[in-house]
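Work package 3, deliverable 3.1, input record:
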Amino acid sequence: MSESEHEADETVDARGSACPGPLMDLIGKIKNVEDGSVVALLTEDEGSKNDVPEWVEEAGHDLLDIVDEGEYYSIYVKKT
Amino acid sequence: MNGYAVVLASEELERVQAVSMIASVAASSDIPVEVFVTMNGLNAFETAAIEEMDFEGGRVAEAMMAAEDVSVPLFTEQMEKAKAIGPLKVYACELAMDLLDTDLEEYADVFDDTLGVSGFLNRAKDKQIIFV
């Protein structure tokens, strides 16, 4: 299992849910955290690693890292 | 971005599900979405169809209906979730309901109200229209 240099303030575990579940869970969480918070999204959905960065860019947040954890991905997003 | 006005006139599960996904992600991102469910589109929202997972459609619909461990949330569940997060409104067509002799109680609990064509056009006039 790989590790990220980033530490999450909040974690959204969306493993087991398919597109667009993980993205919607992330959006819901991002809305409810303070600016500057780092949210880690855990997802097994292959589409998430392309679709989540698209949303993050459009919404103006920072994509910090996408870590391949083997069975799933950890996507780190900083709210700006 | 003024948002999207979606006309859903099909009962095919693939189309209904696609509308729900796009509308839900847009609304969750604070983009206003109005979904007008009309004609046969209403059939997919009947409580009986949902309880029995009995929908029209092709291969994707069959795969969704056959899956025991469904990881894709059904459109109704997705819409309910999105409505709690962002500006998503869902309306049922009055004309189609008159023809079918149904009322809102016979449908899933996702509708904000019933609506006629003028009402839809008023809500759609500043939005991009998507016809499905």
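Chain A is about 30% helix and 30% strand.
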